[in-house]
Amino acid sequence: MVTNEPTADDCPQTNEIPMLGLGTWKNTDPETCATSVEQALSMGYRHIDTAQAYNNEQAVGTGIARADLDREEVFVATKVWIDSLAYDDVLETTAQSLQRLGVERLDLLYVHWPARSYDPEATLAAFDELYEQGTIDHIGVSNFEPDQLRAAVEITEAPIVANQIECHPLLQQPDLREVAADLGVTLVAYSPLARGDVFEVPVLRDIAGEHGVSPAQVSLAWLRQRGLVAIPKATSRAHIADNWQSLSVTLSEDELDRIDALDEQRRLVDPAFGPWN
Ligand SMILES: NC(=O)c1ccc[n+]([C@@H]2O[C@H](COP(=O)([O-])OP(=O)(O)OC[C@H]3O[C@@H](n4cnc5c(N)ncnc54)[C@H](OP(=O)(O)O)[C@@H]3O)[C@@H](O)[C@H]2O)c1
User: Fold this and answer.
1) Is 4's pLDDT higher than 90?
2) Looking at ligand 1, which residue's alpha carbon is closest to its atom 23?
3) pLDDT over 80 at 207, yes or no
């Protein structure tokens, strides 16, 4: 049974990224979104994930402002949408993101998908420019396949610190994990609860029962212990707190191995423009 409440200091970092963050996709009601961000930050979360396409950057910014932390304490990540990946559009829409979020710089800016207006040379040159200006502290990509990641790392002057991809016990991404480790790129796991599917997996339920915790916590502990950052989305205080408690869960080698055996390549986020299609 977990008794201790993790604090911000209990959240490890990799490549300067706090390993547990709050996801905000579909958290679009402005008041609900701002409240969940504020609650997460007051609980100890220090990493908030949003995107231009989520239509909630302003509400996320309101939540950050209400939490009243020093700017350096919060790791703010957003993503440039696939219609805005031409050089000038990256610069222009990032300025708009900053304004909506109410911040002067971003900790991490991602290419959301290698799709539509993505042009490796031109898009990444704009990201390098933002890095040079000090507008962004880190460059990231998202939904990149191994070859695209290798190519992007070759192109940018600044390091690419993260590839944000779908990863959970039912989609374990062994190839991407190997390539990312080779390149020193951190994988940020999106849909780390398989959008709720982890709650139905008997092995995760059993391990959760043995620890007296939720299957969500087991899934998040597995990701952390395997070296991945996780950004579960939660809107209710109860879910936000449940996920935060995963920092107090340590799985045994045997439990980690049992979860490793659950991979069934179940991909849940699969738009037609996904590079694997
Ligand atoms: N880069 C990309 O292309 C991409 C794609 C997808 C997602 N993402 C990012 O990754 C984040 C997370 O992924 P996701 O939103 O797809 O799915 P997810 O985090 O796997 O699952 C979210 C769902 O689980 C519920 N939940 C959260 N914590 C729970 C708990 N402890 N117990 C029971 N239910 C719980 C949430 O409910 P409530 O909301 O009711 O709390 C919500 O319905 C997104 O929000 C977004 O920031 C990025």
Assistant:
1) no
2) 195
3) yes
